[in-house]
Amino acid sequence: MAEQQLNAPERARHEIRRSPRTSPSGVHQVTEFQDPGYTIVGNHLTQHRSLSGLAIGLAAYIQSLPEGAPVDIRTLAKRFPEGRERIAAALRELETHGYLERVRRRTDDGRLVTLTISYNNPAATRARRARETAADAKRRTAVEPPRPSPGPAPTAPPAPKPPHVRPSSRPVRPETPRVRAEAPRVRVEAPRVRAEPAPPPPEPQPHTPAHHTPAHHAPAAALLANLRHEDPRLLLSVRDIHRLTPPVAAWLERGASPEAVRSALTTGLPPTLRHPAALLAHRLTELLPPPLPTPQPSAPAAPAPPPLQTCDGCDRAFRAPAPGRCRDCRDCRHPATERGAA
């Protein structure tokens, strides 16, 4: 038989190394050197068991962006093929697990903006803040000097022994030194008086007697009850409405329209509103308009002149409250009147 000659190239042989830690069908990584411009992402994020794949991808994408880049839902929906609902749900997942934090802040010109804070390692950030808080508390404790504890009262020093004197013919009486005992100095500290905060200003009240139900109370209560339509956070209880009705009635009594009162109470509310009734009471007190000026009494009207009458003697017109003769005819009789009489 002829010798078999093969001209086809030999197939590459891949050795499969079996190890108790690796699987022959798992992932095999090829790591290459990367140029500048890469992002370090921790395994706690990429292997998170509670986050979805979209949330992990968005977190890695947000961490790769420069400072100040827009990461709102509309911008991310233009960048990725997923819709706004899925992107909003993924951002909520990142907020729940601490990788994102969205804060509403007010700028210098009064606009409200949303600031997004991205944490690449939330657990490490929380641990660092806890250590800083503990270090600050320890530093404040070390700066404050400890108060000295009261000790026993000092006693007078013992009298020194007399010096040795050589014996002589005359006995010498040793002198006893005088010891002056000083009273211990006791430092008396004045009790610290805690300054109490100034009481808040009283809420404005209408100038209507207490026994009479003001006419402005009913529209004021209705205005307070309808504030929840402007903002759902302004849902007031019955007790708060009864307490805030007199201040709103004072506004209405001073000539403010219901629209003006509603605008003063609902414009520029903070992003976090914990005590709506307290905020409304503060605004009603601080923004109270001045009372309307008292109308000046008008000058008395001039009396109306008497009506015109026709004189019975000279047929001239004159003003008089009743028909008769004019003043000239009353003073001297008219010639026509004398001829008629003749």
Amino-to-carboxy terminus distance: 190 Å
Report the sheet with the most strands, covering strand number, pairing sense and barrel closure: 2 strands, antiparallel
DSSP summary: helix tally: 12
Structural class: mainly alpha
- Segments where pLDDT lies below 50 for 5+ residues? 207-213, 336-342
The total count of strands amounts to 4
Overall form: elongated
Q: Give the fraction of residues assigned to helices.
A: 25-40%
- CATH superfamily caption of the domain at 43-122: Winged helix-like DNA-binding domain superfamily/Winged helix DNA-binding domain
- How would you describe the oligomerization state of the chains in this entry? single chain
User: What's the rounded overall pLDDT mean?
Assistant: 77
CATH architecture label name of the domain at 43-122: Orthogonal Bundle
Series of H and E elements: HHHHEEHHHHHHEEHH
Residue fraction in strands:
5-15%
Radius of gyration: 50 Å
Task: Examine the coordinates and then state which fold CATH places here, giving the name of the CATH topology of the domain at 43-122.
Answer: Arc Repressor Mutant, subunit A
What descriptors fit this protein?
about 350 residues; mainly alpha; Arc Repressor Mutant, subunit A; two-stranded antiparallel ribbon; two-stranded antiparallel sheet; disordered C terminus
What would you say this structure looks like, in words?
Among the domains are: 80 residues, Winged helix-like DNA-binding domain superfamily/Winged helix DNA-binding domain (Arc Repressor Mutant, subunit A), CATH 1.10.10; 61 residues, no CATH class; 30 residues, no CATH class. It has a two-stranded antiparallel sheet with strand order 1-2. Strands 3-4 form a two-stranded antiparallel ribbon. Helix content is 35%, strand content 6%. The chain contains 12 helices and 4 strands; from the N terminus they run ααααββααααααββαα. The chain is mainly alpha-helical and 342 residues long. Helix 2 crosses helix 4, helix 6 crosses helix 8 and helix 8 packs parallel to helix 10. A hairpin with a 6-residue loop joins strand 3 and strand 4.
